Amino acid sequence: MDLRKRQPLLQAGEVCNYYAFVTQGCLRSYSLTAEGHEHTLQFAPEDWWISDLYSLLTQQPSTMSIDALEDSQLLLLDQADLETIYAHCPVFERYFRLLMQSRYVVLQERVNAALSQTAAEKYQHFLRKYPTIVQRVPQHIIASYLGLTPESLSRVRRQL
Questions:
Q1: Domain boundary among 56, 77, 98
Q2: Domain boundary among 49, 77, 105
Q3: What is the mean predicted confidence (pLDDT) over 131-160?
Q4: Rounded distance, CA 134 to CA 126, Å?
């Protein structure tokens, strides 16, 4: 599947039906507050997976949106596709189990960082962990990922 920059893969309120593997480009998942503020939850550049796993597995409407930050190409797998792959190639079941474990570790790191790190520490950690994303994603979106205002991120960047 091809997505143009800013084109949605999933919109809040829809049921997520796919795991998406990014072969080219970059996507992000995000949620909106009642006031309309964005909170970026995940980036997915090339060779990353992105989905709303909760919506996919429960078939409940998603509370997040996923859209393309760049023109992107994706490989989409639905739950039936995955079950077929697991049955015919067990190494993929192990691959996805390890993928979910690593995503859970990243989630724990984000929660701990949000609760205990300063703005500068969050940004420095982001730079170390995702150096290529910093070059590709607008600063206001990085700020929303870090839980900072664009102005706060700008101050942090000037101080470094």
A1: 77
A2: 77
A3: 95
A4: 8
Give the C-alpha separation, 124 to 82, whole Å: 36
CA distance linking residue 127 with residue 87, whole number of Å: 39
Residue 160's pLDDT is 86
User: What is the model's pLDDT at position 114?
Assistant: 86
Question: What tens digit of pLDDT does each residue of 67-120 get?
Answer: 999 999 999 999 999 899 999 999 999 999 999 999 999 889 989 988 899 999
- The reply to whether 92 falls in a domain is no
Residues 6+ apart with CB under 8 A from 105: none
What total number of domains does the chain contain? 2
Range of the domain at 73: 1-77
Give the span between the Cα atoms of 14 and 151, in whole angstroms: 32
CB of 12 within 8 A of CB of 65?
yes
Six-digit token string for 110: 């984000």
